[in-house]
Amino acid sequence: MRFEAVHPGTVAVWRVQSLVAIAVALLALAALFAPLLAGGALAMAALIAWLVALLVLAALGWWLPEAWYRRLRYCLDERGLSVERGLLWRHRITVPRVRVQHSDVSQGPLQRVFGVATLRLYTAGSRFTVTTLPGLEHDTALALRERLLREGDGDAV
Amino acid sequence: MRYENGHPVPEQRLHPLSWVFHLVGGLGALIPLGIAAALGAEWGGALWMLVPLLLLGPLAGLWHQWVYRYDYGPDGLLIREGLVFRNLRQIDYRRIENIDTERTILHRLLGVADVKVETSSGGGAEATIRVLSVAGARALSEAVFARRRALGDEERQEHEDDPSADAVASPLLRLPVSELILMGLIDNRNLFWLGAVIGSLFQVAGVETLERLFGPALRDAGVAYVNQLGLALKIFLVLATLVGVLVVAKLLSVITALVQYHDYTLDRDGDDLRARHGLFTRRTVTLRVPRIQVVHQLATPLHRLFRRVMLQVDLAGGAAEPGQSGGARPLAPICRPDQVSGLIDRALPGLDRAAPDWRPLSSRTRRRLTRLWLWCWALLSLPPALWWWGWPGLAVLPAGLPVALLHGHLYARYTRWALTPDLLLFHRGWLWRRLAVVPRNRIQTVRLARNPFDRRYRMTELEIDTAGGGLAKRRVRLAYLDRDVAARLAGSLLE
Question: How many domains does chain B have?
């Protein structure tokens, strides 16, 4: 099995998403507590805590997508598609071709800017009904789905 | 069946007494009335406005009965509901998996049945026909399955040579009363809430009653001091509570088993299996064999004491019934170990189970489990021990060692897996023993997972997803495998 990495553009997508989420959360926190603490004895301490949180979260938001990207690999072979991901809890899920019920290739506005898309495979299973492979180049995603479905046109269950 | 502008219009009607079964809806309207009356409201004025609500149930029932039609269309079962807002539902014959009937006492008095039509899509019955006469229900079931066969399920027709006549004569499994009593004794479902109820009852009423009953006797016997008396009574009370809870719980459990599984009969219905059971509410459940995904065999310590096991099956897209975890149906609520093989052969026909080559877990499992249990024991017991006894409390630590060692040893010894040309078998646990039999052609996806602990012990966990199951304890999850063994197993499962 030869695993391939996804498109690096997805790191930028995840970074923008995580940084925006962190910014929104911290600003909301600030807006909530600023009137309460303004001028009080705890104002300085709260400001410092806020700044530290900002730095730590921003660093995480910058570094984690890179780490996720490095751990996210996929492989298409004659049996089906395998997706490997996870930093601490690592897993590899394999979807046999014949088990794919239907599939989605989706692309949000942010993903479009960086030219990536998400491939979703649906099976008739009960626990892992959807297998998601994010961060593919849009054309790659379409081609991958095409290959997966064309060659898997056997005994559909 | 008649046609309007080329479209089929269903014509068959419900049983004339259907409206009776909608009365329950009207009874809900009694609640505000009852509350108002209980609060001492005057019978006059606004209260009378509520009375028409009582009529809503029967009227809705009559309306439903009047407009409801079903029929056998060319491709599927047609059901029409409503006259103003019309809804014509077609359920493709080939998609109909189960036609179950359910009969409460009222149904049986009136000779009717609720009919549930289930398809392979999950989430409850596709249609509930409330109600048909028993003959009508049987006719519906026969008509649907006959059309289903006629629509050319080629693989099913190959099996038609099986004469089903002999199956009618001898059921695959029949549970006599003695087995049901055993089943009730083994089953623990009622124990927990019942313990709470009885415990609190004893707390409230017990002390005074007991003191009144046994107080004089104890005093005569020379228990002079009040506090001594109190202590003796308390010990007696605790013991009596425990025994009482156990006895009543088991009694209830036996009664439940007798009522719910009265005259449990599992027999063949063509290629499929059909279970009928129930004393008051008589249920008929069809288990479509192609839908069976996994067969589970469960043996609790009590099961082993009485030399019995329980068999369950996971059905694809099984409708989650109340009280049943999604898709799980009993194949045999209780049976002898020597009956298991025959029943599994019926549930998973044509799959060779002979001589599985059992493989153990990783050789490091024992060490890992022992350490895990010791850590858990330390985290749970050390803080209170240190709090109470100070540093001597450290002595509780070695106390956990025997249990941890024993568990690690036994778990590693009894947990094993085997791969045959057709099946994956997985046996897990030593106290509660579960065996999962998974046909390899039912496997949907295979997942290999490694958490930080797995990585440290160079292990991998392999989990299999089928179209049935879902609940945590029914997952087919082979933990503590050697890394390369798991990779090879995953590879061969996907071939």
Answer: 3
By Cβ distance, the residue of A88, A94, A126 closest to B446 is: A94
The residue segments making up the domain with residue A60 are 4-70
- Counted across chains A and B, CB pairs separated by less than 8 A come out at 67
Same domain, A114 and A143: yes
Chain B hits for A91, CB-CB cut-off 8 Å, are 447-450
Query: How far is the CA of B385 from the CAs of B45, B105, B375, B390, in angstroms?
Result: 68, 57, 15, 7
* In a shared domain, residues A82 and A44: no
Give pLDDT, residue B297.
Answer: 93
In angstroms and rounded to an integer, the radius of gyration of the C-alpha atoms of chain A is: 21
Going by the DSSP 8-state scheme, the letter that residue B390 receives in this structure is S
B144 and B32 belong to one structural domain: yes
Q: Which residues are B311's β-sheet partners?
A: B297, B332
Whether A23 and A87 map to the same domain: the answer is no
Q: B412: pLDDT confidence band, cut at 50, 70 and 90?
A: very high
The verdict on pTM exceeding 0.80 is: no
Q: Are A146 and A83 part of one and the same domain? A: yes
State whether residue B3 is helix, strand or coil.
strand
Structural domain includes residue A22:
yes
Domain containing residue B482? 289-361+415-495
- CA–CA gap between residue B211 and residue B231 (Å, rounded): 11
Q: Are residues B254 and B347 in the same domain?
A: no
Segment B135-172, tens digit of pLDDT: 888 888 888 888 888 876 544 444 444 444 444 557 88
Chain B residues whose beta carbon lies within 8 Å of the beta carbon of residue A97: none
- Does residue B445 belong to the interface with chain A, where contact is any CB pair within 8 Å? yes
Contacts of A72 (CB under 8 A, 6+ apart): A5, A6, A83, A84, A85, A134, A135
Contact criterion met (CB < 8 Å) for B449 and A91: yes
Q: Please check whether residue B490 touches A, CB under 8 A.
A: yes
- Both B303 and B437 in one domain: the answer is yes
B491, closest residue in chain A (CA to CA): A79
- The ipTM is 0.86
* B439 vs B93, residue with greater confidence: B439
A 10 A CB-CB count for B329 gives 22
Considering the domain architecture, whether residues B220 and B306 belong to the same structural domain is answered as no
Whether A88 and A132 share a structural domain: yes
Q: Quick check: A60 pLDDT over 90? A: yes
Contact list in B for residue A123 (CB cut-off 8 A) is: 444-445, 465
Whether A157 is in a domain gets the answer no
